[in-house]
Design brief:
Helices cover 36% and strands 24% of the residues. With 206 residues, the protein is α+β, with helices and mostly antiparallel strands. It has a single domain (2-204), classed as Cyclic phosphodiesterase (Cyclic Phosphodiesterase, Chain: A, Alpha-Beta Complex). The strands form 2 sheets. It has a 4-stranded antiparallel β-sheet with strand order 2-1-7-8. A 4-stranded antiparallel β-sheet has the order 5-4-3-6, with helices on one face. The longest helix is centred in the last third of the chain and has 15 residues, at 159-173.
Length: 206
């Protein structure tokens, strides 16, 4: 069982409705991102460390969320990141970057160390020296100064696939993507290896 701390759109918002409609499609290029859900990662998936518990994690995230203010952000835009389509902030959003870094550090005591196999798999991806150092310290390479917030929409695609999915996303959005509003932290859980992540609790920010 693994847990993660996510950004998820406000329920019933235009962004949430888009995400639900997007992943309702029966397209193979959505299989992997659909399993993780429509989200932006703040604390990447981890197993609980010895001596910690789900209740303890939920309590910690609830207290953390209560101490933070809602963050209104810039509009989103569609972008290709390393071959997959995603929604990303259209302008720098430093307050969100700081929030993500604080989530990584604050909840790290709940993270069990990665296995040797997990480390080897990450290292085989051709990380930079900085990303490798972040992986060894925080269990994930794309954190702190290597963090880039995004809402993943597809698996890795070729150029023709990216063009096709981008055009479809633009059509489904029906206009410019909405602005980003970070109003809560969501604790998600993977109940079994390979199972879809599901939302466990959503804690509103102040």
């Amino acid at each position: 069982m693994r847990y993660a701390v996510y950004y998820t759109p406000p329920p019933e918002s235009a962004l949430a409705r888009f995400g639900a409609a997007w992943f309702a499609r029966k397209a193979s290029c959505l299989d992997a991102p659909r399993r993780y859900g429509f989200h932006g990662t703040l604390k990447a998936p981890f197993r609980l460390a010895d001596g910690t518990s789900e209740d303890g994690l939920l309590s910690a995230v609830e207290g953390f969320a209560a101490s933070r203010r809602t963050l209104p952000g810039p509009p989103l835009r569609l972008a290709a990141l390393a071959g997959f389509l995603a929604l990303v902030p259209a302008a720098p959003f430093q307050a969100l970057d700081r929030l993500a870094a604080d989530c990584v550090a604050t909840f790290d005591g709940f993270r069990a160390p990665g296995t040797e196999a997990e480390l080897a798999r990450r290292l085989s991806a051709g990380l930079s020296p900085r990303e490798e150092a972040l992986l060894r310290r925080w269990g994930y390479p794309y954190v702190m100064d290597a963090f880039r917030f995004h809402l993943t929409l597809t698996e890795r695609l070729d150029e023709a696939g990216l063009d096709r999915e981008r055009a479809l996303a633009e059509s489904m959005l029906g206009g410019p993507p909405p602005s980003l509003l970070v109003d809560a932290l969501t604790v998600a859980v993977e109940p079994a290896d390979g199972a879809p992540f599901r939302s466990l609790r959503r804690f509103e920010l102040r």
